[in-house]
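Suppose a colleague, Dr. K., hands you the sequence of a protein chain of 282 amino acids and asks what its three-dimensional shape might be. Before reaching for any lab equipment, you can write down a predicted structure in token form. Begin with the sequence itself:
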Amino acid sequence: MELLTTVSQLEASLARARQEGLSVGLVPTMGALHKGHASLVERCVRENDVTVVSVFVNPTQFNDKKDLQSYPRDLDADCRLLQSHGATYVFAPSVEEMYPEPDTRQFSYPPVDTVMEGAFRPGHFNGVCQIVSKLFYAVKPDRAYFGEKDFQQIAVIRQMVQALGIPVRLCPCPIVRESDGLALSSRNALLSESERKLAVNISRILFFSQAYSANHTVRQTLAFVEDSLNALEGLEVQYFQIVDGRSLQPVADWQQTDDIVGCITVFCGSRPVRLIDNIRYR
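The predicted structure, expressed as tokens, is then:
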């Protein structure tokens, strides 16, 4: 495995691979890697000759400077994990390398990017599109792998790829969870032991709501999840929406579409730590 820190190094290394006719897969990450990331890398290694993993905490997608500053970082640990799972290249550039000058490009894909995260984190998806497009242009991957925990992000990137005509196949990968159901997230490292136990209730109540939804309306299921979580001291639901899995628009009843997903963001603890999760109802 080789660690690269500049775009020129990356492009030169991949040019050699292309000359040999090798397929290239990309796993974009912000580091603080865990088993969920490892599952993406393993799939990428299986399906491609060359696996590139980017490790870059992208400042343009944070609309809260404190959140950016507190985001966990450990490149040495990340490299050890990636080497053990067969990555070919780790691309870990500096902010100056990726943004030698301000990126003034504007990306807008309503209504997919204006609901949920788009409504509560203004500019977030514009920053996501800025960095992911830069990575796609530099790596020119045949396939790119994203975890479905960031369900809305995948939908936005799919819109961007279509709009820009980027020839890459997007490969969504299932959420990886701890044995108790908590969705794996880099932000979990920010939780205290007591907050970690509290956070498990997010997935526990989401899973319960699947069965609950069989005999209750969409509106009742929404209220059940929100009320159940907000009743627990230390948890506060920022939003919970039940949406069409393709358009990401809210659904009014279970017969409206055959693809229905519940997307949630919850603040956990006193700091607090912002956690996202989702679950498929239909």
